Amino acid sequence: MLSEIEAEAYLEQIAKSGCILGLESMQRLMAELKDVHNNIPYIHVAGTNGKGSVCAMISSILMETGLRVGTYTSPAVFDRKEQYQINHVPLSGEEFAALISEVKQACERISARGYNHPTVFEVETAAAFLYFFQNNCQIAVLETGMGGKTDATNIIEKPLVSVLTSISIDHRKFLGDTIEQIAKVKAGIIKKNCPVVAVKPRQLQVGEVLENVCNEKHAVLTYAEAELAEDIQLFGAGEKPSCLKDEVQDLNRSDEQTESIVLSFQYKKIGKISLSMAGIYQVENAICAIETVEILRASGFKISDDQIRQGLQKAHWEGRFSVLCQEPLFVMDGAHNEDAAEKLMQTLKMGFTNDKIIYIIGVLADKEHKKMLETMLPLAQSVFTVTPKNPRAMDGQALAQEAALYHQKVMYCSNIEEAIDRALQCARQEKSMILAFGSLSYLGELREAFKEKRHDR
Predict the structure, then answer these.
(1) Looking at residue 164, what is its pLDDT?
(2) Do residue 217 and residue 357 come from a single domain?
(3) Considering 224, 247, 281, which residue would you say is the last residue of a domain?
């Protein structure tokens, strides 16, 4: 059996072969693993932004009912093992090594018969199916990769619910240049006679695509409408000391606990909802999760209103307006495209307009970084740019030059530690908050660097 280090090295090696769309290879791999994926009911989630948050919310609600819930998300943000969870507990290093070893052996048998080796995402996804089967999960929540129709997770044939979060322009190289093309790929998870929940699109073209596909598949479509949320409030921005001080989240997965910012709203018969996932964009994600659960209730799942409320309150998805510390307020968010930046800006305008805000930004070169900067920089006091440790990263110096077109106080930092030091120094001098955002790929490095600094003090 591979060691954990060897398993990681194996995945890194096959990742170099790139991405090949289509289900034939995945079907061959799962057949080699005795099609274990057919033994578990699934909720399947696709979209551009919000997939991970919606998965976390649905899983948390289902856990409240006592079910054994598997959750598979991608890409890995902080640790590859966190992609695989059962009742929100990531698999261990030993379990990870054993799973990857078993899937690797299946891949080798396939290659010996003359077929191409499965891609890294196919291997990771097969490992998820195997993990949930071996651990007797009663239900699993699957997040697609970047696509839908040809995504490796789309091998499942009859999900309990197909869920589509907000859809916007992203991954043009693989999904298409227009919003309609991208929506068609995402809508590929819709199956014949299976119910669908979708965040109500802002673009008419996306709505038309979803409705046409649902009509073709005889799939009943339910829209999750954020506009139906009432009395939206944001607590915990420092200026509101009475905000639910007893609600604490272990955001750093360590012994250090920090208060989360709390978002609350009213929704239909469920009543008041409180979220520790506090970005304003989480309102539409929570409503998407609620409407998904409503379909499960209608099909016979016993899920009470209180379990929905408790599940949403406990749900956590790190890297989405996550609080690293309160003094000074230091938040990180994985906003990495124009749509996510606009939603992050809405959060800032709602709860932080009285704050001076220092940005730390790192992005990937293939993202809509110019539009992100144009959207986000008007609220910045100062900006520090970095280069994420990712082959697709945009050089931080080039990013600084680009950001300087929209803001006067921009500085490039050669590493994350320098950016954190400078941001903290400015925040303490100016009584500012810090917001790190951009590529998800550097948030793990940022979090660990910040934790090291707190430990050293």
Answers:
(1) 97
(2) no
(3) 224
Secondary structure in 3-state letters for the chain: CCCHHHHHHHHHHHHCCCCCCCCHHHHHHHHHCCCHHHHCCEEEEECCECHHHHHHHHHHHHHHCCCCEEEECCCCCCCHHHHEEECCEECCHHHHHHHHHHHHHHHHHHHHCCCCCCCHHHHHHHHHHHHHHHCCCCEEEEECCCCCCCCHHHHCCCCCEEEECECCCCCHHHHCCCHHHHHHHHHHHCCCCCCEEEECCCCHHHHHHHHHHHHHHCCCEEEECHHHCEEEEEECCCCCCCCCCCCEECCCCCCCCEECCEEEEEEHHHEEEEECCCCCCHHHHHHHHHHHHHHHHHCCCCCCHHHHHHHHHHCCCCCCCEEEEECCEEEEECCCCHHHHHHHHHHHHHHCCCCCEEEEEECECCCCHHHHHHHHHHHEEEEEECCCCCCCECCHHHHHHHHCCCCCCEEECCCHHHHHHHHHHHHHHHCCEEEEEECHHHHHHHHHHHHHHHHHC
> What is the total count of domains within the chain?
2
Which of 224, 241, 273 delimits the end of a domain?
Answer: 224
Give Cα separations from 150 to 47, 90, 190, 315 (angstroms).
14, 27, 12, 29
For residue 271, give every residue at least 6 positions away whose Cβ sits within 8 Å of its Cβ, in sequence order, or none. Answer: 305, 309
Domain that holds residue 141: 4-224
Taking only the tens place, the pLDDT of each residue in 3-30 is 999 999 999 999 988 777 789 999 999 9
Radius of gyration of the chain (CA): 21
Q: Which residue has the tokens 């006592």?
A: 66
With a cut of 70, list the residues of the chain below it in pLDDT. 169-176, 236-260, 455-457
Query: What's the pTM value of the predicted model, to 2 decimals?
Result: 0.89
pLDDT value at residue 260: 66
Whether 220 and 326 map to the same domain: the answer is no
Structure tokens at 381: 């006091």
